[in-house]
Design a protein that fits this description.
By secondary structure, the protein is α/β, with parallel strands linked by helices. The chain has a single domain, classed as P-loop containing nucleotide triphosphate hydrolases (Rossmann fold, 3-Layer(aba) Sandwich), CATH 3.40.50.300. 49% of the residues lie in helices and 15% in strands. It contains eight helices and five strands. Strands 2-3-1-4-5 form a five-stranded parallel β-sheet, sandwiched between helices. Helix 2 runs antiparallel to helix 3.
Length: 186
């Protein structure tokens, strides 16, 4: 039976580092929402007259584009799960945390086979996260850095309420993630 790993956490928590390590350790397909959707997202934002790098504070992105990004990610995950391949999803998913049936609904909508779902909650402290976000120098992070207190409060207030999955907490405040530490948590 394939597994699907939802690696979640705020920008800069080390979500991608952890997700890539999970994919390597589990021999799973790695799917990053930004890699799948960024070019389309930026084109849609440009066509709508919006800043192509502004997502956090863009009504058009929040209302129209974001759900399309996640639907695409979940659909591609389903393609791989039906092939018997485990999948690691690298995306924040914050908007969907309050939907208890989110994983069950995704499985129905995208025709997933019987699948073990694991949610890996990646966390780190505010100063560590801010330092990492600043160091990666992405244009799409400008709003986060310019409105740090608002971004951080929103990131901390979101509680993932998904059922139908095993939830694993992983504190990524240190300097690096080891395969051994991650395997112990999983």
């Amino acid at each position: 039976m394939p597994s699907i790993y939802f690696v979640i956490g705020p920008a800069g928590s080390g979500k991608s580092t952890v997700a890539k390590l999970v994919a390597t350790e589990r021999g799973a397909v790695y799917l990053d929402k930004d890699s799948l959707a960024t070019y389309f997202t930026e084109a849609l934002l440009t066509q709508s007259g919006s800043d192509p790098h502004e997502r956090d504070n863009s009504e058009f992105y929040q209302r129209t584009v974001m759900d399309l990004e996640y639907a695409t990610l979940l659909r591609v995950a389903g393609d791989n799960l039906r092939l018997g391949l485990s999948v690691v999803l690298d995306a924040p998913f914050v908007r969907y945390f309050s939907r208890e049936d989110y994983i069950e609904e995704a499985a129905r909508t995208h025709g997933w086979p019987e699948t073990e779902a694991v949610v890996v909650h990646v966390s780190a402290g505010s100063s560590t996260v801010r330092e990492r976000v600043s160091a990666r120098s992405l244009e799409r992070d400008a709003w986060k850095l310019g409105h740090w207190d608002e971004f951080w409060a929103k990131a901390q207030a979101a509680e993932c309420e998904w059922r139908g999955a095993r939830h694993v907490l992983f504190d990524n405040s240190g300097d690096g993630v080891s395969a051994e530490a991650l395997t112990r948590h999983l």
